[in-house]
Design brief:
By secondary structure, this protein is mainly α. Helix content is 73%, strand content 0%. The longest helix has 33 residues, at 84-116.
Length: 469
């Protein structure tokens, strides 16, 4: 009876909740501020999920929610004479966001530069001119998605490959729908074994929990995750050959050096982290400076070409290279959404809810069950806030389990079209063709691949227990 009355008493008399504290930090899990924080976060995330219908960018509600929640927390702490604690916590979460922000900004700048130099358009044109059957294109676009996503992230990969299938399959909507499902699954699976393939893997790597080389233990489980549903779906792909599209896309000057600089930048990020024990973002920013210095000389050269062309009256479409335009065209909505999520989830952890959730999931259910559920939850919510929550819980797990949660959070979003950024983007790009329900028809096959990839991981990677930093 006392156990049932206690939460009610804590709610009616907040001072009782404040007394239940460990050290200076207050336990607000039974306080009205804690309940309000959960309600505000859920409302904000409902607006994020409804973005497709409201057309309100997903960053806006979570940024507002973060500000309101932290003000409520600070208000309670101020009354208790502990106003310095929320300030220190906010600065801590800001530092976490800043590291990821700088890393992603550099990566997005490179991707935008390669896109402007026609790198992805050239790839698209090459694929369209092969004269391959729908089934072969189904496999080629899927395999390319699997191997490109570890380098340029799953979202960019999915958008590039979707443009290919839309162009070649415009007369066969069934092929387009199946190919889009295949691309989403392949891009998410490929991103799961690379620190650069998904924001969740990047977070785990930058935290120093999983070392760079350890991610590659997930290659075989990721291959299984992709191949199982792809093999089942290929039977439904029309076995006919469309007419080839005779289009020729040429690379702009500097395209190949920029690709080379991107490879160098990734090498710098790994070296800075593994050899010098510096944050990976510093290597990425250093590599970004190389792009900008190269861009300076490329811009000077193209300015001269443009001036000569104008004098000759043949300026055409020459646009001098400008690296700062690529910074401006970064996915700012995604970056600011990430800020809001880290701040919101961090606030819930500061209140004490993540500790309670961690005790239940990783204590009572066990790490394997908990990590499998993380992947399923990622399909419904989104893998970013789910992984942020796991990292804030700081469960005590060996390397096998940390790799498992990295795998499940990365590929679990493939179960539903709304479960990953790649799926949501393709629903917009192939509107009316690739839909929630067209994806749902094959969820059973994707779930089979999800289950088998977990089984394979536990089979071949069990017992990995090197110290987690």
């Amino acid at each position: 009876m006392k156990k049932k009355l206690l939460p009610s008493l804590l709610f009616l008399f907040p001072t009782l909740a404040l007394a239940a504290t460990s050290g200076e930090k207050l336990d607000l899990t039974g306080h009205w501020v804690g309940f309000a924080a959960i309600g505000i976060f859920l409302l904000a995330y409902a607006l994020v999920i409804a973005e497709e219908f409201t057309h309100m960018r997903k960053s806006k509600p979570v940024m507002l929610a973060a500000g309101i929640i932290w003000v409520l927390i600070a208000w309670v702490y101020k009354d208790s004479g502990l106003s310095h604690l929320p300030e220190e916590a906010v600065k801590h979460y800001l530092m976490e966001f800043a590291e990821l922000f700088m890393f992603l900004l550099a990566a997005m700048t490179y991707v935008n530069a390669m896109s402007e130099r026609n790198v992805f358009e050239a790839l698209r044109g090459w694929l369209l001119n092969r004269g391959w059957s729908y089934r072969k294109l189904f496999w080629v676009t899927g395999i390319l998605s699997f191997f490109l996503s570890p380098l340029i992230d799953n979202l960019t990969t999915a958008l590039v490959m979707c443009a290919v299938v839309l162009a070649v399959g415009k007369d066969n909507l069934k092929f387009v729908a199946l190919a889009c499902i295949n691309i989403v699954v392949a891009a998410n699976a490929g991103g799961a074994f690379s620190p650069f393939g998904d924001i969740t893997t990047l977070m785990v790597w930058q935290k120093g929990i999983v070392h760079f080389n350890d991610f590659f233990h997930l290659v075989i489980p990721s291959v299984v995750n992709y191949l199982v549903p792809a093999t089942l779906m290929t039977l439904a792909v029309p076995n006919i050959t469309p007419d080839p599209l005779k289009s020729r896309i040429t690379l702009k000057p500097g395209a190949l050096p920029i690709i080379g600089l991107f490879v160098v930048t990734i090498f710098l990020a790994v070296t800075f982290h593994n050899v010098f024990h510096l944050p990976p973002f510093l290597g990425m920013i250093t590599g970004m400076s190389l792009l900008k210095i190269f861009g300076y000389f490329l811009k000077q050269k193209e300015h001269k070409l443009l001036k000569r062309a104008q004098q000759a009256g043949t300026a055409g479409d020459i646009t001098p290279f400008d690296s700062f335009k690529f910074v401006a065209r970064a996915e700012w909505d995604t970056l600011l959404f990430f800020f809001g999520v880290i701040m919101c989830v961090g606030a819930l952890g500061f209140i004490g809810y993540l500790h309670l959730l961690s005790q239940y999931m990783y204590g009572e259910l066990g790490p394997t069950t908990a990590n499998v559920l993380v992947g399923i939850l990622s399909a419904i919510v989104d893998n970013i806030p789910v992984m942020v929550a796991v990292l804030e819980m700081k469960p005590h797990m060996d390397l096998t389990q940390w790799l498992l949660v990295t795998l499940t959070a990365g590929v679990g979003g493939s179960l539903l079209s709304i479960g990953s950024a790649a799926g949501v983007a393709l629903m917009g790009q192939a509107r009316g063709i690739y839909t929630f329900f067209s994806h749902l028809k094959w969820t059973w096959a994707i779930a089979l691949g999800y289950a088998l990839s977990i089984w394979v991981h536990l089979l071949i990677n069990s017992g990995m227990d090197h110290p987690i930093r």
